[in-house]
Amino acid sequence: MKFYIFLFLLISSLSFNAQTAANKTDDKGLKQGYWLKLNPTTGKPAYKGTFKDNKPVGVFKYYYSEIDTIKTIMEFKNNGTVGYATVFYMTGKKQAQGKYVNEKKDSVWTFYDEGGNLLSMEGYKEGKKDGKSLIYFPNGEIAEERNFKNDLNHGVFKQFFEGKKVKAEGTYIEGKQVGKSAVYFPSGTPAAMGYYNERGNRNSVWLYKDKEGKVTSKDVYDDGKLLNGKEAEAWLLKNKGKEPKEEPAKNPKGKTTGSTGKSSKETKKASTPAKGAKK
């Protein structure tokens, strides 16, 4: 037993001495050269890398606290202000990849599942979401498209079914959903539609349809409040023209078809007077 205790103390001492031998600071207290930082709880490596005047230089490796497995590899450039990161699952598979500027996420970041499939792409600026953000199906098709500004939804968003058919669409301004919003069945038939006001509240008649395109119900909202029968009647009299149009279904090619099944070109042709007809 004494032998094992001695061996344990010896290994601990050697580990400590190796760490302190590596972890040097100059007379100004600035980190210099190679550093090995240990996790204070587990005693396993937290990170390994090289410093110059207290700034990270070159490649750093960061580890999971539970096991001796690399969590992140970071390559520092521009005097330590820019870092190109690759993040890994505990299995060693790549989880994410992107750039840091002054320790904040910047530019486009990509995220993957453990099978190597692309999960999402997100734009960042100074640590906040900024620009286009995409979520993908396992087959590589886009499942959702959003735009961000200063970490808030800002701009057009769309959700898709597999097969690139639109599932939902709308618009955000500084985190609030505004204007027209619509949800569709996989066939392209509108399932629900209505409008949001500038405060992000429902503020119109909302129509709900079945798969055949027939209206099944209507709700009336006034600045986010769902109105009852008499309130709804009064609102409709006061706000004529705010009821959403009977939008035709969207087909897979992005064209539209009316409830009769005729294409938009056929409808236009049928409504145009023939030559010689009386005006």
Task: Report the C-alpha radius of gyration, rounded.
Answer: 30 Å
* Oligomer type: single chain
Helical content class: 10-25%
Succession of helices and strands: HEEEEEEEEEEEEEEEEEEEHEEH
In CATH, what is the class of the domain at 18-80? Mainly Beta
| Principal-axis shape | elongated
Number of helices: 3
N- and C-termini, Cα separation: 110 Å
CATH architecture of the domain at 18-80: Single Sheet
The profile of the biggest β sheet is: 19 strands, antiparallel
Brief write-up:
Helix content is 14%, strand content 48%. It contains 3 helices and 21 strands.
Q: Your description of this structure?
A:
There is one protein chain. Helices cover 14% and strands 48% of the residues. The chain has 279 residues and is mainly beta. The chain has a domain at 18-80: Histone H3 K4-specific methyltransferase SET7/9 N-terminal domain (Single Sheet), CATH 2.20.110.10. The strands form two sheets. It has a 19-stranded antiparallel sheet that branches. A two-stranded antiparallel ribbon has the order 20-21.
